[in-house]
Every structure is written in structure tokens, then in C-alpha cells.
Design brief:
The protein is α+β, with helices and mostly antiparallel strands and 411 residues long. It folds into four domains: 1-48; 82-181, Beta Barrel (Thrombin, subunit H); 191-299, Thrombin, subunit H (Beta Barrel), CATH 2.40.10.10; 305-405, Roll (Pdz3 Domain), CATH 2.30.42. Helices cover 23% and strands 33% of the residues. The chain has helices spanning 6-35, 43-47, 61-80, 93-98, 106-109, 286-299, 316-322, 347-350, 373-377; strands at 84-92, 122-132, 138-141, 152-156, 162-170, 177-181, 190-191, 202-209, 213-233, 236-246, 258-260, 265-273, 281-285, 305-306, 311-313, 330-332, 358-362, 365-366, 385-392, 395-402, 404-405. The strands form four sheets. The protein has a six-stranded antiparallel beta barrel. A six-stranded antiparallel barrel has the order 8-9-10-13-12-11. Strands 15, 16, 17, 18, 19 and 20 form a six-stranded antiparallel sheet that branches. A hairpin with a 7-residue loop joins strand 12 and strand 13 (281-285). The longest helix is centred in the N-terminal third of the chain and has 30 residues, at 6-35. The protein is globular. The protein starts with 5 loop residues before the first helix and ends in a 6-residue tail after the last strand.
């Protein structure tokens, strides 16, 4: 039996503890690196207190950030969801099929027969989303959500109630519509400021996905701003300018629903998706929508300004094809079927604009592929005076025009 000196034995114990301590610390740091998801304290963690403020006992920054963002998302959903509604279109199909001698979906889907029994009676034929903007029942949605002329529309609120809806106004120059329901003390969505949004900013959508999954929540980021797209649907197409691009999932039925920031403010209205891509959706900036809401509150309709010209956008290609002296601006031309280039009695007519003039700028804003004439004019109100820079017979000149109210069939 070996005999250990007590002093030597004590030193051996201390050395053993130190070696074990070092080996444990080094191996912990090593496995922390190769494990990726493992969060293991390194040696320095034993030697000093963590410097991360507001951290938990593990000192995990990632966990704190994740919890904060998840908490913010949950708070936003709880705040906005009560103001999000489903919009349902109901149509008398017996009247629809009396107008058509065949079942309209046969050829498209490749089944069925013109002689098969046709649906009859009132049935739900489409659905979308909207959000409440006033306690007495004003609701904002997309124009294409309520585009079936002979349909009846109803609104399903988050608390399960159903209301008949009246179309109050539609925007002639944008995919926005305003509805009204007979109700009071409704929860409302807070409208934010879309001018300050940034690419990469986290956003949330809430909507009636596929017309079946009400108040579905998706999350993503702003992927792009100031996009110009041509959206098609319901036998029509519309060019939308200055829209927000997002990768937050938007599905059929989400149209008209809110795009929300992490403060719980609506910054856009979900409008379209690019079916050729993946997670490419678009929303109309909320500042455009606020203009519509303000107009309806003031006038009972959507009032838009108009200059009164028909034009095509000048591009580098158009410049080469027509030997123009500039590669930007709006070339004033006749419309289809020979419609006048300048509407008689319009603001443009009174300002002396003529066919083949090129409008280069409005109040110093150059007209180009990112800033069309219609898009610039839409930011003004009827009665506003604007300064135009015009290329007339090869010479630049300026003119003053007082914008007029948009009327059907005016430009």
C-alpha cells in the first residue's frame, strides 16, 4: 500500500482540479464551435461576468432577439386582427347561367358537359380581405375584390358577426375601394406612414387566405419599394406604380388585407402576386390609401386630379425609333380610335399643350420610367396649380396648369 505525504497529496488534488478545469473549458469551447447550435460557456466566461445587458442566465443574445421579435409579432397580431375582415361576394348563379348557354369552366378545367345540371340560387363566388378604418364601419379593400357588378357583398368580422356591405367608392386610378357596414364601436386599424419604409424591414400580413383560412398570419420583409407592375384579374388589368414588394406570403383571398409593420401600423394594402416567382407579392402604399379615405370622408367619393392629355412614355427605345431629342418625358399623342391628344377644356388645353409636345417635368419632377405623368399627378388635388416643362417644336418652355377633377372618360 502506497503512503502519500499529506502536503504532496494536497498539491496533487489542487493540480488535478486545475487541469480538469482547463480541459473542461477548452473542450466546451471546441464543441461549442463545431456544434453550431450549442451554446457552451468558454473559459473567459468563468473568469468574468457577462457583459451583455438584459440577457438571461445563459448569456444568449440570439435567444433575446428571437423572443423580442416573436413577442412583437404576437402583439401586432393581437392588436390588428380584430380590425381585419373577410369580404364575400354572393351571386345568383341561375341568372348567370341563363346569360350563358354553356358552363363557363368546362373548357378551362377540361371536364364537365354543357348538358350537366347547372348550379342555381345564390352562392358565394369569390372572397377577399379588408380592414376597418373607422369605428362606424368604413372598410378599405382592393377594387378588384368588389368588381363583380351584380354580386352582393357581405363582411365577416373577427368576432364572427356578418354584415351586408355597401360599396361607397372605388378609386378610378388605383386598385382601392371603400365599403361601409351598419355597425358601431368597431375596432380599427392604425394607418401608418409608408414614406419612411425601408428594404429589409420586417412586415406582417393578415388575411382570408384562399377564401377559407380567415385571419391567416404570415411574416416576411420588404423586398423592394417603388415598383411598377401591371396586375391582371377579373377580366381587367391595371398598372400600379410605387408599390411595395414583399416576400411575406400572399395568397388568393389575401387581396385587400393589411401589410403591417412591427409597430402595429398598416403601411400597405396587399394587392397582387407574381405567379412566375416565389414569395413575390405587392402592396399599395398606405399613404395612397389615406388619400382615398380622406377624399371619401370629405366628398363622399374618390376625387382625383387630372391634367387632360393622352400620352405615351418616352424611353430610349422610343427616342431611337422616332428620332426624338430626349429619352424621357410624356409624348402627347392621340388615343385609340383617334381620340384627341388633348381633352378640350381640360387643364392641359388651357395651358396651351398641343399634340406631339413632350411634357418633361412637373414641378421639377422628371417624368421617366419610374415616375409617370399619371403617378406624379395623382399626388395632387383638383385645383392645385403645377408648373410644366414642355418640349415644343424642339424648344423647351414652361407653362402653368390648374388641375381639374377626374371625370369618367377623361385623361
Amino acid at each position: 500500500m502506497l503512503d502519500f505525504n499529506k502536503k504532496s497529496f494536497k498539491s496533487y488534488i489542487i493540480i488535478s482540479i486545475v487541469i480538469s478545469f482547463l480541459i473542461g473549458g477548452i473542450s466546451g469551447a471546441f464543441f461549442g464551435m463545431i456544434g453550431g447550435s450549442l451554446i457552451t460557456p468558454s473559459i473567459k466566461d468563468f473568469l468574468r461576468l457577462p457583459t451583455i445587458s438584459n440577457s438571461d442566465n445563459t448569456g444568449s443574445t440570439i435567444k433575446n432577439v428571437t423572443v423580442k421579435e416573436e413577442s412583437a409579432t404576437i402583439d401586432v397580431v393581437n392588436k390588428v386582427s380584430p380590425a381585419v375582415v373577410s369580404i364575400v361576394a354572393t351571386q345568383d348563379l341561375s341568372k348567370l347561367y341563363q346569360q350563358n348557354s354553356f358552363y363557363p369552366f368546362n373548357d378551362f378545367f377540361g371536364f364537365g358537359s354543357p348538358n350537366q345540371q347547372q348550379p342555381s340560387g345564390k352562392q358565394e363566388v369569390s372572397s377577399g380581405t379588408g380592414f376597418i378604418v373607422s369605428p362606424d364601419g368604413m372598410i378599405v379593400t382592393n377594387k378588384h375584390v368588389v368588381s363583380i357588378s351584380d354580386a352582393e357583398y357581405s363582411v365577416l368580422t373577427n368576432d364572427g358577426n356578418r354584415y351586408d356591405a355597401k360599396i361607397v367608392a372605388t378609386d378610378p386610378l388605383n386598385d382601392v375601394a371603400v365599403l361601409d357596414i351598419d355597425a358601431n364601436n368597431l375596432p380599427i386599424a392604425t394607418l401608418g406612414d409608408s414614406d419612411g419604409i425601408q428594404i429589409g424591414q420586417t412586415v406582417i400580413t393578415i388575411g382570408n387566405s384562399l377564401g377559407e383560412y380567415t385571419n391567416t398570419v404570415t411574416k416576411g420583409v420588404i423586398s423592394g419599394i417603388d415598383r411598377t407592375i401591371t396586375a391582371s384579374g377579373q377580366n381587367s388589368s391595371e398598372t400600379l406604380e410605387g408599390v411595395i414588394q414583399t416576400d411575406a406570403s400572399i395568397n388568393p383571398g389575401n387581396s385587400g388585407g393589411p401589410l403591417i409593420d412591427l409597430d402595429g401600423s398598416v403601411i400597405g394594402i396587399n394587392t397582387a402576386i407574381d405567379q412566375q416567382g416565389e414569395s413575390i407579392g405587392f402592396a399599395i402604399p398606405i399613404n395612397e390609401v389615406k388619400t382615398v379615405v380622406d377624399s371619401v370622408n370629405k366628398y363622399g367619393k374618390v376625387v382625383r386630379p387630372v391634367l387632360g392629355v393622352r400620352y405615351i412614355l418616352v424611353t430610349p427605345a422610343l427616342k431611337e425609333q422616332n428620332n426624338l431629342s430626349v429619352d424621357y418625358g410624356a409624348l402627347v399623342v392621340k388615343g385609340q380610335s383617334g381620340a384627341l391628344a388633348v381633352v378640350l377644356g381640360s387643364a392641359a388645353d388651357k395651358a396651351g399643350i398641343e399634340e406631339n409636345d413632350i411634357i418633361l417635368e412637373i414641378d421639377g419632377q422628371k417624368i421617366d420610367q419610374n415616375h409617370s405623368l399619371a403617378g406624379i399627378i395623382r399626388k395632387y388635388k383638383p385645383g392645385d396649380a403645377v408648373t410644366l416643362k414642355i418640349l415644343h417644336d424642339g424648344k423647351e418652355k414652361t407653362a402653368q396648369a390648374t388641375l381639374m377633377e377626374y371625370q369618367e372618360n377623361s385623361s
